[in-house]
Design a protein that fits this description.
4-stranded parallel β-sheet
Protein backbone atom coordinates (compact mmCIF):
# COMPACT_ATOMS: atom_id res chain seq x y z
CA UNK A 1 0.00 0.00 0.00
CA UNK A 2 1.42 3.37 -0.98
CA UNK A 3 1.74 6.04 1.65
CA UNK A 4 -1.43 8.06 2.18
CA UNK A 5 -0.92 11.49 3.76
CA UNK A 6 -3.62 13.22 5.79
CA UNK A 7 -3.62 16.31 7.99
CA UNK A 8 -5.47 16.92 11.23
CA UNK A 9 -5.36 19.24 14.23
CA UNK A 10 -3.36 17.74 17.09
CA UNK A 11 -6.22 18.64 19.44
CA UNK A 12 -8.71 16.43 17.56
CA UNK A 13 -9.17 13.02 19.18
CA UNK A 14 -7.19 10.11 17.75
CA UNK A 15 -9.13 7.79 15.46
CA UNK A 16 -8.33 4.26 14.30
CA UNK A 17 -8.01 5.35 10.64
CA UNK A 18 -5.29 7.92 11.52
CA UNK A 19 -2.56 5.36 10.95
CA UNK A 20 0.81 6.69 12.08
CA UNK A 21 0.23 9.99 13.90
CA UNK A 22 3.07 12.43 13.25
CA UNK A 23 3.42 15.80 14.97
CA UNK A 24 4.68 18.17 12.27
CA UNK A 25 5.26 21.19 14.56
CA UNK A 26 8.54 22.32 16.10
CA UNK A 27 6.80 23.17 19.39
CA UNK A 28 4.59 20.84 21.41
CA UNK A 29 0.94 21.98 21.16
CA UNK A 30 0.01 24.17 24.11
CA UNK A 31 -2.21 22.43 26.65
CA UNK A 32 -2.09 19.02 24.95
CA UNK A 33 -1.23 16.23 27.37
CA UNK A 34 1.37 13.87 25.92
CA UNK A 35 -0.55 10.80 27.09
CA UNK A 36 -3.75 11.94 25.33
CA UNK A 37 -2.06 13.04 22.09
CA UNK A 38 -1.30 9.53 20.82
CA UNK A 39 1.70 10.84 18.87
CA UNK A 40 3.73 8.07 17.21
CA UNK A 41 6.46 10.32 15.83
CA UNK A 42 7.50 13.94 16.37
CA UNK A 43 9.22 15.46 13.33
CA UNK A 44 10.64 18.56 15.03
CA UNK A 45 13.50 18.84 12.56
CA UNK A 46 11.14 18.77 9.57
CA UNK A 47 9.02 21.62 10.92
CA UNK A 48 9.57 25.17 9.66
CA UNK A 49 12.54 26.94 11.20
CA UNK A 50 11.81 29.21 14.14
CA UNK A 51 12.65 32.21 11.96
CA UNK A 52 10.24 31.17 9.21
CA UNK A 53 7.48 30.29 11.67
CA UNK A 54 7.77 33.68 13.37
CA UNK A 55 7.91 35.54 10.05
CA UNK A 56 4.75 33.79 8.78
CA UNK A 57 2.81 34.39 12.00
CA UNK A 58 -0.22 32.70 10.33
CA UNK A 59 -0.84 35.84 8.29
CA UNK A 60 -2.88 34.82 5.22
CA UNK A 61 -1.16 37.39 2.99
CA UNK A 62 2.16 35.63 3.64
CA UNK A 63 0.85 32.11 2.88
CA UNK A 64 2.22 31.68 -0.67
CA UNK A 65 5.67 32.95 0.29
CA UNK A 66 5.63 30.77 3.43
CA UNK A 67 4.86 27.72 1.26
CA UNK A 68 7.77 28.50 -1.05
CA UNK A 69 10.24 29.10 1.79
CA UNK A 70 9.15 26.05 3.75
CA UNK A 71 9.44 23.78 0.69
CA UNK A 72 12.98 25.16 0.24
CA UNK A 73 13.78 24.27 3.86
CA UNK A 74 12.41 20.75 3.36
CA UNK A 75 14.44 20.25 0.17
CA UNK A 76 17.60 21.37 1.99
CA UNK A 77 17.00 18.90 4.86
CA UNK A 78 15.81 15.57 3.37
CA UNK A 79 17.16 13.53 6.28
CA UNK A 80 14.55 15.15 8.56
CA UNK A 81 11.85 13.19 6.69
CA UNK A 82 13.68 9.83 6.87
CA UNK A 83 11.76 8.59 9.95
CA UNK A 84 8.41 8.79 8.12
CA UNK A 85 6.85 5.44 7.20
CA UNK A 86 7.08 4.74 3.47
CA UNK A 87 3.64 3.14 3.25
CA UNK A 88 0.30 3.10 5.00
CA UNK A 89 -1.68 6.02 6.37
CA UNK A 90 0.29 8.91 7.87
CA UNK A 91 -1.62 11.69 9.62
CA UNK A 92 0.35 14.92 9.99
CA UNK A 93 -0.76 16.73 13.13
CA UNK A 94 -0.59 20.49 13.65
CA UNK A 95 -1.65 22.92 16.39
CA UNK A 96 -2.60 25.91 14.21
CA UNK A 97 -6.22 27.09 14.17
CA UNK A 98 -6.22 27.55 10.39
CA UNK A 99 -6.75 24.09 8.91
CA UNK A 100 -6.04 25.25 5.34
CA UNK A 101 -2.90 27.35 5.87
CA UNK A 102 -0.38 25.66 8.14
CA UNK A 103 2.92 23.82 7.86
CA UNK A 104 1.32 20.34 7.87
CA UNK A 105 -0.57 21.24 4.68
CA UNK A 106 2.69 22.29 3.00
CA UNK A 107 4.45 19.16 4.25
CA UNK A 108 1.62 16.97 2.91
CA UNK A 109 1.88 18.70 -0.49
CA UNK A 110 5.65 18.25 -0.48
CA UNK A 111 5.40 14.53 0.36
CA UNK A 112 2.70 13.99 -2.27
CA UNK A 113 4.95 15.60 -4.90
CA UNK A 114 7.83 13.35 -3.78
CA UNK A 115 5.62 10.26 -4.08
CA UNK A 116 4.67 11.21 -7.66
CA UNK A 117 8.30 11.83 -8.59
CA UNK A 118 9.48 8.41 -7.37
Amino acid sequence: MARQIRTKRAYDPPEPHDGTRVLADRLWPRGLAKDKAAIDLWLKDAAPSTELRRWFGHRPERWQEFRRRYRDELAANPEALAPLPRDGVVTLLFAAHDIERNNAVVLAEYLAAQNKAS
